[in-house]
Write a structure and sequence with these properties.
Elements (H helix, E strand, L loop, with lengths): L3 E3 L2 E3 L36 E6 L10 E9 L9 E5 L14 H9 L2 E5 L15 H4 L4 H18 L7 E6 L1 H12 L6 E5 L6 E3 L2 H13 L2 H16 L6 H7 L11 H20 L17 H8 L7 H15 L9 H8 L12 H12 E3 L14 H12 L6 H11 L9 E6 L19 E4 L17 H18 L2
Parallel strand pairs: 5-6, 5-7, 7-8, 8-11, 9-10, 11-12
Antiparallel strand pairs: 1-2, 3-4, 4-6
Helix pairs in contact: 3-4, 5-6, 5-8, 6-10, 12-13, 12-14
Pfam families: Peptidase_S28
Keywords: Glycoprotein, Hydrolase, Protease, Signal
GO molecular function: dipeptidyl-peptidase activity; serine-type exopeptidase activity
């Protein structure tokens, strides 16, 4: 068992495992209304607090708040590196202070390990509520400035000014890890940016194109059957006489109320999300976090879709949804867009989407886009086009539905695919749909990519296990060799 620390003093810790990676740093992902979410359990890993500025870019604003972080100095040797794990669009999970590949690197290199929670997520509450006015202080730029100030202050107070700092993160935090090195090269020596979408884009139909390819890699018929099922459902939603059957088939909490294309889009995206989530996290090793449903893999989904005894593809699609509901103990599925908008518009820290939904969708509406639409013909779903996602920006935050300038700003700020920096490694998995917005080929010898065939989102970050693919084990080793080399520079 690894040890955490309190004020950099060692103490024993017995961790009560908490929830799934989708909600927790450091490998957060696209935020979905998903069966994976639930309440955070108690942990014996001790949380600590850091005084942070509310607005790093307005010297006249002196307001401050408390940001949560965790420490593990079990492996630290004097003069060793400092590993900083970056939090993302959910509560920081102290399980990562005891588990994960980065701790093996820390043990070998004598590193001190820190995990900093992202502003506006988890318990790190910079403002009294989540009003749109207050969410103006939620951005990747402010988060990077948080990291810079935290790194500077901790280094000064703990005598770590001359130590080499390495940033780690997966998914959006992976992007932050790369951008931290880019924007503050004097503060961070190297970064491991796993499954990092570095290119912002309003429309991201390539996500579902990768879902198609990942399903087809299991069986070429699988995505074709999913498409037939999805197309059938779209047709049936045009006839209100079918709604009672649809409600029963998919165990919906209420009969569909289809008054606009947006209403049907919400239903269709909610059902497609089962396949999207499974593909993104296929055969990962998140069990240590308390993740439920890791036994539901692409192989399982395709076995259901290929089972002709269940009836037509539509019936098999419904069987997949029922399987997921059973796995995650859901009695029914709420598919009412109005209810979703009501939940997302709740600005209280105790609101139903305060775990990350309201915050992350705001970031997509103001910085990233990343909307996984059905606008490509080369994917298996139908019915949730780009304008459905853009409408949410207006309905939830009263923001513009034109994000082109915001996306342009983000790519101008960070460089998109053409990032200009050094000592950043970009691991990605071929099954993970996010690799389409990541770096999958070396930019330079000092900006290498590690593209891992057959693995999904953030696979290299999770603890190793006997059934890991050989190429995954090699990728972990390669990243360690790079860290060794860079820390010697």
């Amino acid at each position: 068992m690894a040890l955490g620390c309190n004020g950099f003093q060692k103490y024993s810790a017995v961790l009560v495992i908490v929830l799934a990676c989708v909600l927790f740093a450091p490998c957060d992902a696209r935020y979905r209304r998903s069966h994976r979410y639930g309440a955070q359990l108690e942990s014996d890993v001790q949380e600590q607090w850091f005084i942070q500025r509310l607005d790093h870019f307005n010297g006249a604003d002196t307001r401050v708040w408390k940001q949560r972080y965790f420490v593990n100095n079990t492996f630290y040797r004097s003069g060793g590196p400092v590993f900083l794990m970056i939090g993302g669009e959910g509560p920081a999970n102290p399980a990562w202070m005891q588990y994960g590949t980065w701790l093996l690197y820390a043990q070998k290199l004598g590193a001190l390990c820190l995990l900093l929670e992202h502003r506006f997520y988890g318990k790190s509450h910079p403002t009294e509520d989540l009003s749109t006015e207050n969410l103006h202080f939620l951005s990747s730029r402010q988060a990077l400035a948080d990291l810079a100030h935290f790194r500077t202050a901790i280094a000064e107070s703990q005598g770590l000014t001359n130590n080499k700092w390495v940033a780690f993160g997966g998914s959006y935090p992976g992007s932050l890890a790369a951008w931290f090195r880019l924007k503050y090269p004097q503060l961070v020596h190297a970064s491991v940016a796993t499954s990092a979408p570095v290119h912002a884009t309003v429309n991201f139909p390539e996500y579902l194109e990768v879902v198609w390819r990942s399903l087809a890699a299991e069986n070429p018929e699988c995505p074709l059957l999913v498409k037939k099922a999805s197309d059938t459902l779209v047709e049936r939603l045009k006839d209100p006489k079918t709604y009672d059957n649809i409600t029963n088939d998919f165990r919906l909490c209420s009969k569909p109320q289809i008054q606009s294309e947006i209403d049907s889009a919400y239903l269709l995206e909610s059902l497609a999300g089962n396949f999207m989530d499974v593909v993104q996290y296929n055969e990962d090793n998140r069990a240590f976090e308390g993740a439920v449903g890791t036994n539901i893999t692409i192989k399982v989904l395709c076995s259901v879709m290929l089972d002709s005894s269940l009836g037509e593809p539509y019936n098999r699609y419904a069987a997949v949804v029922r399987l997921m509901q059973s796995t995650f103990s859901q009695s029914c599925l709420n598919i009412q867009y109005k209810s979703y908008i009501q939940d997302m518009s709740n600005t209280s820290w105790s609101g139903p989407e305060a775990g990350g939904g309201r915050q992350w969708i705001y970031q997509t509406c103001t910085e990233f886009g990343f909307y996984q639409s059905t606008d490509s013909p080369n994917q298996p779903f139908s019915g949730f086009p780009l304008h459905y996602f853009l409408q949410q920006c207006a309905d939830i935050y009263n923001l513009s539905t034109s994000l082109d300038y915001a996306i342009q700003q983000t790519n101008e700020e960070y460089g998109g695919y053409d990032i200009k920096s050094t000592r950043i490694v970009f691991p990605n998995g071929s099954i993970d749909p996010w690799h389409a917005l990541g770096v999958t080929q070396d930019i330079t010898s000092d900006l290498p990519a590690v593209f891992i065939k057959g693995t999904a989102h953030c696979a290299n970050m999770y603890p190793a296990r006997a059934e890991d693919l050989p190429q995954l084990s090699l990728a972990r080793d390669h990243i360690f060799i790079l860290l060794q080399k860079w820390l010697a520079e």
